[in-house]
């Protein structure tokens, strides 16, 4: 079976963007049974923006694991891991730091956005983030990576790293990975500004829906979401210049598992005041069971730790031989 890998940072909270853009696809790919699926809490990535207080990182990682399971990831069907518990990720990342070029990294828009005006003060880890991401994927020889649209550039870099390694050593060892960016919500936007991505690190709370928000909070954030005074159009073309309106229609479509056009077929002509009520009801119906299951799972952190321990052992059956072979190709002495 071809192998799928993807991850989410335990940098605190899980948004509707993470759920619709990533997690929901992870579950679909697992349940399709066509791929071997490996899903990861990327805790090494989560400290690139800032060093979190240790207890916060531990709690975020467990909460994210609970989020994976509550969303439908089955730790028996998928390999569910925490990145730092599988040391081959970081070991291969070092090799890739020596394969990737400074210029490639410097062109990454995530690096530019997150380092902002203070590139001198950003961590070296933030700069090298995409090399670690390439290692996460290639240490499994994964061929398919479901992600949101914002990760497309990093996946192209993963392909460049694999191709350069293969070329420089004259081997056909690392696969050239395919991004899987599909569905109505590959880029869920900020509820207050439809031109910006919904992000868990945005300081303004009402810009996003968190998976742990209760029904009232979800309904309130949707009611307050920015829109325009026009009714919903009857075709998706009518949304092209209306980013805030388009975002709400896309969110509805993704939650209901229908196309944006099907949403408009049902709601064309409605004013947003009305549509938002339907959207809030749908969001609460879909998200509430997940958030209550998350809090139930969080009552037993030892069980979460056991699940991640088992996941790491299964993962290392794959990663240890691939890393050994990589070292062998490079000429690193093994004895
Ligand atoms: N708004 C989004 N729409 C669709 N997909 C999204 N993803 C994130 N935001 C959206 C997808 O979620 C996966 C995991 O993302 P991540 O947590 O590793 O990092 P991120 O992309 O940096 O997510 P955030 O929420 O924006 O976190 P912060 O604020 O910490 O930077 C990825 O597949 C991503 O595409």
What do these coordinates show?
The protein is mainly alpha-helical and 335 residues long. The protein folds into 2 domains: 3-180 and 301-330, Rossmann fold, CATH 3.40.50.620; 189-296, Tyrosyl-Transfer RNA Synthetase. The chain has helices at residues 16-32, 43-46, 54-71, 88-99, 102-106, 109-115, 124-138, 152-169, 215-224, 243-256, 260-267, 272-298, 301-330, and strands at residues 3-8, 36-41, 79-82, 144-146, 178-180, 189-190, 193-197. Strands 1-2-3 form a 3-stranded parallel sheet. A two-stranded parallel ribbon has the order 4-5. Helix 4 crosses helix 7, helix 4 (88-99) packs across helix 13 (301-330) and helix 7 crosses helix 8 (152-169). The longest helix has 30 residues, at 301-330. It is globular, with a radius of gyration of 21 Å. The model has no long low-confidence stretch (mean pLDDT 97). The structure holds adenosine-5'-tetraphosphate. Adenosine-5'-tetraphosphate (AQP) binds at residues 8-9, 11, 15, 17-18, 21-22, 147-148, 150-151, 186-188, 197-201. Residues 8-9, 11, 15, 17-18, 21-22, 147-148, 150-151, 186-188, 197-201 line the site of adenosine-5'-tetraphosphate (AQP). A motif ('KMSKS' region) lies at residues 197-201.
Provide a brief overview of the structure.
The radius of gyration is 21 Å and the shape is globular. With 335 residues, the protein is mainly alpha-helical.
């Amino acid at each position: 079976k071809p192998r799928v890998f993807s991850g989410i940072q335990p940098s605190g909270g899980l948004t509707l963007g993470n759920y619709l853009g990533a997690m929901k696809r992870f579950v679909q790919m697992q349940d399709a049974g066509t791929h071997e699926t490996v899903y990861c809490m990327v805790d090494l990535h989560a400290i690139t923006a800032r060093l979190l207080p240790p207890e916060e990182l531990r709690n975020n990682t467990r909460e994210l694991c609970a989020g994976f399971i509550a969303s439908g990831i089955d730790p028996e069907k998928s390999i569910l891991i925490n990145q730092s518990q599988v040391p081959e990720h970081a070991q291969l990342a070092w090799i890739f730091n020596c394969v990737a070029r400074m210029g490639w990294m410097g062109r990454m828009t995530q690096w530019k956005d997150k380092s902002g005006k203070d590139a001198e003060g950003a961590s070296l880890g933030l700069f090298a983030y995409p090399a670690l991401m390439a290692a996460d994927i290639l240490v499994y020889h994964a061929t398919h990576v479901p992600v949101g649209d914002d990760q497309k550039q990093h996946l192209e870099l993963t392909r460049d790293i694999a191709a350069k390694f293969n070329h420089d050593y004259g081997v056909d060892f690392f696969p050239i990975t395919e991004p899987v960016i599909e569905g109505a919500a590959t880029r869920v936007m900020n509820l207050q500004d439809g031109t910006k991505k919904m992000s868990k690190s945005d300081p303004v709370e009402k810009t996003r829906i968190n998976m742990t928000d209760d029904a009232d909070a979800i309904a309130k954030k949707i009611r307050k979401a920015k829109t325009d005074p026009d009714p919903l159009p009857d075709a998706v073309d009518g949304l092209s210049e209306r980013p805030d309106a388009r975002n709400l229609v896309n969110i509805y479509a993704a939650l209901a598992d229908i196309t944006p056009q099907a949403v408009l077929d049902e709601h064309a002509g409605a004013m947003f005041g009305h549509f938002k009520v339907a959207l809030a009801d749908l969001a609460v119906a879909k998200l509430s069971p997940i958030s209550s299951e998350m809090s139930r799972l969080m009552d037993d952190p030892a069980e979460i730790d056991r699940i991640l321990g088992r996941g790491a052992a299964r993962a290392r059956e794959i990663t240890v031989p691939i890393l050994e072979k990589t070292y062998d190709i490079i000429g690193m002495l093994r004895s």
